[in-house]
Amino acid sequence: MNTQGFAIGLMAAAIAGQVWGNTDPVAATATDGQDSMETVQVWATRVKSSSVYLGETQIVTRQADHLSELMRDIPGVDIGGTHSVNQRINIRGLDDRNLNITIDGARQNNYLFHHMGNLLVNPDILRSVDVDVGANSVLAGALGGAVRFETKSAADLLQGASFGARAQLGYNTNAASSGSLTAYGKLTDNTDLLGYINQIDRRNFKDGNGTEILGNDGRQMNGLVKFGVDLNPDHRLTLTYDRYDDRGDYTPRPDMGVATNSSISGDVLFDTEFGRQTLNLGYRGALGDAGELVINGYQARYTLWRDEENLYGTGEVEGRADNTGVVLLATQDLHWGLDHALTLGAEWNDYQTEYIEEGAALGAESQDARAIYLQDRLSLTDSVFLTPGVRYDQIRNDSVNGNETYGDWSFALAAEWHLTQGLQLLASSTEVFKAPELTEVLVGAGFGKPANPDLKAEQARNDQIGVQFSRDAILGADQFTAGFNLFRTHIDNAIQYSTRTGDSNVGKVDIDGGELSLVYAVGQFNALFTYARSRSDTHGQTASGTLEREVGDSVGLELAYTLAEWDLVWTSRLIEDEPSQDKPGYDIHNVSLRWQPAAIDGLYLVAGVDNIFNAQYTSHASRVGESNHPRFGHLVLNDYEPGRNVKLTASYSF
């Protein structure tokens, strides 16, 4: 059976049935990505997280040129890595290989090389970021939760106009410059088009001690074309092509600091290209009077190419990772004795990897993953809600470990109790099933790796309790909100992946912790305080007894003051020591000022300073500490963050 053809046909049939089978228009026109968020008023990114409670109407708006600026203030979340090719999302100590990550619905999960990140995301073009901190429903199907990126579209930006454009220039003193051009408009009454191109030129930055961090000199380019068509007032199709290329002279191990790379390979740099191309066909439409259907069909290719002749003598090597798939998600409100909010989903993803050395294909693996899931939010009373969920995953791996099929059911149950207006208690328990991963690509995609045909899938459960509070006109504030939760994640049959000794099940992992958020808003002033704590126990699997990327305890504070023409934002983060892994604590402070001159409509000027006090520090989600390598000896791993960085950005829109 042609699985890919079947999936595409299923997607087309579902769309056609909705477009022609539902002829009653709804009051609101469906637009690309339209939801409870209002039209984007400025060039910014909306950030929403399950670990920050902002009440019913608030949502945080960010303006960022780096993924860490969008997400590091979310409790329970950090971004590891300083290099452009080494951005790693970390949730509660679990990295992006344990998350469900999508861009415009297209799955981005892959594993190219352990010394680099697995994502290429440009925050400048993002409309929104929606983060599920932890596995709290059957929808994500991942151990650590989900991150959903959505890019901007012409429908977001036109605001009643027929055409618009935007130009932006940016300069960072430590040490980068950037520019972007965007044009968008209506082609006909029911079609629109957006074109976007962005370029960032990076040089070797300096850390807080003034040390130049070699191997960062490169260029990143991102281009996006998004075409939208309103099939009728409540059904919309979008076709998106998104390309990201990163090329430069980079160190052999971009996730490690200068000291480690110098100890192992001296001043050797590799000509490196890391790229992504994504093609996405999306549909969003009304489903009856109280429902919605969203379908995405996509193909995402990641490629990593390096010339390793000057160190290893292997010449040009290349790794490829392709994700092709379809995701269907339907929601429907019904009344069968009780009020039901149903969510039904189905997914198919085909993951293909290949390793090429000097033009010869040496290794290749594949994974076919399918899932179907259903959850129902039941209104037992006006104040008590119960949400059961069920999910089935089936994964077929064709890898060095053999042709194996893994499958199992997962169940979830969540409860909400609204004690009074603005006060609610939450509890949930969610099972997660994860099949073994394929081999990382740039070390052979299975070529030469010992096999383990007895490898078992990982089984996990996340238990969580929490409380949320929101009240207007209290404690002198126009609005005050608070959110607090405690969680425990338990993983059985945890897998240790090794290209030298083969993969093996090594036992269990426990992660315990919690997150707290407080929002205080009065007039033009807003304050956000956050706290996160996580403690892991690998039961002897690691030398420290904890997860390698565990962040530990963190405190965040954001103060914002907004007026008609300008706004001022101050952020601070305090990270406590993590002695079990020799991770010293640190505190970082940033400030930014945005000015929109009333005399020049469409002009925005942004000035900011990151790391105001020029601290020397390493994120706990990055490589940090010291180690004794059996081959290279004593190594200082610290991937130091940039020191003080003054940033200036000017943009003009019309």
From TrEMBL:
Q: Which Pfam families does the UniProt entry name for this protein?
A: Plug, TonB_dep_Rec_b-barrel
Single GO MF descriptor: siderophore uptake transmembrane transporter activity
The protein's matches in CDD domains, at most eight in alphabetical order, are given as: ligand_gated_channel
Which segments constitute the TonB-dependent receptor plug domain? 52-145
Membrane topology category: Multi-pass membrane protein
- Please list the residue ranges annotated as the TonB-dependent receptor-like beta-barrel domain: 231-612
Please report which protein family the annotation says this sequence is part of.
Belongs to the TonB-dependent receptor family.
Q: What is this protein called?
A: Fe transport outer membrane receptor protein
Tell me the lineage of the source organism.
Bacteria, Pseudomonadati, Pseudomonadota, Gammaproteobacteria, Cellvibrionales
